[in-house]
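[User] I wish I could look at a protein chain and see how it folds. I have put the entry right below:
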Amino acid sequence: MTLTFVTLAGALGCVLRYLAEYAVRRHHPTLRPWATVAANTVGTGIAGYFAYRLISIGDAHLQSVILTGFCGGLTTFSSAFAIPAILQREHHWRYSIALVITTPLLCAGAFVMGTSLAH
């Protein structure tokens, strides 16, 4: 039963990330990587909030659904580092470096903020 909910939550996270990237790409094709950064940041913030909340109440089922399923589907660190590699090959060094630096910093900050909000 848990696997079904984790799968559905993961699918929802994937669809939300796709829609965000599609909306950005449709209106501003060069800003698509920032939609990935935003999805990773929001997903990590949600993970921080619920990791703190769910550990304190001890709900392992809901923890799996939200953290592994939804946040796992919403965030995508494979794209977060594949896109800068592609940009680097196309000689967009500054843009590539900006993405590599901002993604972990924003995500770490969002996680800390999420745990702070959960207090």
Remarks:
- Helices lie at 2-27, 32-57, 60-74, 77-89, 93-118.
- Residues 79 and 86 are 10 Å apart (CA to CA).
- The chain has a mean pLDDT of 89.
